[in-house]
Amino acid sequence: MPHFRLAHVSDPHLPPPDVRLGWRDVASKRLLSRIAWRRKRRRHRAEVLAALVADVRAQAPDHVALTGDLTNFATAEEFAAARTWLESIGPPGAVTVSPGNHDALVRAPGADPFAAWRDWLGDDAAEPFPKLRVRGEVALINLCSAVPTALHLAQGRLGEAQIDRLAAMLREQGEAGRFRLVLVHHPVADGAVSGRKALTDAAALRAVLAREGAELVLHGHAHEALVTRVAGPAGAIPVLGVPSASAAADGHGEAARWHGLEIARVGDGFEIGVVARGLTGEGEFGELGRYRLTSPGRR
What does the DSSP 8-state code read for residue 191? Predict the structure, then answer.
């Protein structure tokens, strides 16, 4: 297969529109998050995000995977602003969004809380999560771990129905010989984040991956560059995370970074080239390093 080039970006935390809180917001998690944003907005910088997006565009990937937290408070105004931003990243067929916990900060009225981004979630709007996109020999399998949680929690949950559908999808795409790329906001490996930020049914997800296999899992949420692995039927499955796409180099946590992935078939399996690109100077992005991964293959 020709090399499939994918950009992995996460947690942009777009600057929220200036909207006053309603009385329902004051009694919800949004109030606490607004207070926290007064501190976080100095770390999540619009100019850093703009520089990262320009760097991604300059590399001209075939597809962009965005693993959540486009918004901060999950308001209608933020969803609309994020849609405009997504349109600037690329057409819906070339960008896939996996929603994050901030995108589901409070329970939204209506059956489809992510309706504004419907076209960026998958090719079939009526399909429940996980949503499937096939691009050449790559099957992008998009999970949604975004659920409303109690105060002071940033956990995620997939639910039994989504995990069951994932198992069938992994099996089907594996039998078709495709590279199975799983997208989810929350980390998958045990201990990657604290319990209050974890995926509550991660053990069930890992059990499915161990049984059915996958070639690669991408996530965000931790605001760190993480390389972990989980068990697969034929060997360990690589799991990669990236820092926030808007994080300033201010000495508090990891600065903005994205990963360029080059996926190529090698014999009966696949090889993955990873290029890390991030802030190297005042507002400038450049290469930070590169390495290669080999997918574990199938039983």
Answer: T
